[in-house]
Design brief:
single chain, mainly beta, 10 Kd Chaperonin, Protein Cpn10, Chain O, 8 strands
Length: 96
């Protein structure tokens, strides 16, 4: 199934956090927090401004982003979990 977000929304796939700490301790599943980093899968056409014009989004498909812990709405697409976020819920774009 393909999904295309509308307006200023983006679809993000969470990037799983590491299961081992820097000291080599294995972190159990029940102690893990939800990752706040993800990869942008798809973006909408842009935000509609008050004057009716459309402002293009800063993020694009393939970008790695940081977002708030409780941001977005969780959905399942083809059996995989994704998030739908508004662009203003994105905290930063991770530059490589």
């Amino acid at each position: 199934m393909k999904i295309r977000p509308l307006y200023d929304r983006i679809i993000v796939k969470r990037i799983e956090a590491e299961t081992t700490s820097k000291g080599g301790i294995i972190i159990p599943d029940n102690a893990k927090e939800k990752p706040i980093e993800g990869e942008v899968i798809a973006v909408g056409n842009g935000k509609i401004l008050d004057d009716g014009s459309v402002r293009a989004l800063e993020v694009k498909a393939g970008d790695r982003i940081l977002f708030g812990k409780y941001s977005g709405t969780e959905i399942k697409v083809s059996g995989e979990e994704h998030l739908i976020l508004r662009e203003d819920e994105v905290l930063a774009i991770v530059e490589r």
